[in-house]
Amino acid sequence: MRTKISSIANCVVLSLMAGGCGSASHEDYVPSESAGRQAVETALAAWQNGKTMQRIEGQDAAAVEPQDSDWKAGKKLTGFSVEKEVPTTQGPKQFAVRLSFQGDAEPIDTVYYVVGRDPMWVFRDRDYKKTTGM
């Protein structure tokens, strides 16, 4: 299953980076700021509430596919704050996030990338870079 998810994520990310296929454009893979922020908040709230890392079906919004190696490894998220959108000229939406973990004295600052529209793939920066080979 991990290979299938990685393959799908790679296709989405590589399509975005390459400009898409056929008539698809860069904008076809980039959500609005509000939708991207909501996807990050949805993913992190599920993690904080003890859910396993899996697809989150949206009732009134697009599905969310979270990708975070700490979450997958079982690390306990105790709090988070989506600080702001990180300005970019191209590529996925990026959001600066502060995370607090059980057993850690200090929160950490990181960036989450959001790719796609439905589903929206939510990657932590290091997982995005690993998936795209950056």
Describe this structure in words.
- The protein is an alpha+beta fold and 134 residues long.
- It has a single domain (2-132), classed as Nuclear Transport Factor 2, Chain: A, CATH 3.10.450.
- The protein is 34% helix and 27% strand.
- The chain is built from 4 helices and 5 strands; from the N terminus they run ααβαββββα.
- A 5-stranded mixed beta sheet has the order 1-5-4-3-2.
- The two termini are 23 Å apart.
- Mean pLDDT is 84; it is low at 1-8 and 14-21.
Keywords:
single chain, 134 residues, alpha+beta, Nuclear Transport Factor 2, Chain: A, five-stranded mixed β-sheet, 4 helices, 5 strands
Give the SSE layout.
Layout: H1 2-18, H2 33-48, E1 64-67, H3 69-72, E2 77-86, E3 93-101, E4 108-115, E5 120-124, H4 125-132
Parallel strand pairs: 1-5
Antiparallel strand pairs: 2-3, 3-4, 4-5
Number of strands: 5
In this structure, how is the largest beta sheet organized? 5 strands, mixed
Within the largest sheet, what's the order of strands? 1-5-4-3-2
| Overall SS class | alpha+beta
Mean of pLDDT: 84
Strand content: 25-35%
Helical amount: 25-40%
Please identify the top-level CATH class.
Answer: Alpha Beta
**Shape summary:** globular
Query: Could you give the order of the helices and strands?
Result: HHEHEEEEH
Q: What count of helical segments does DSSP give?
A: 4
The Rg value, from CA coordinates, equals 14 Å
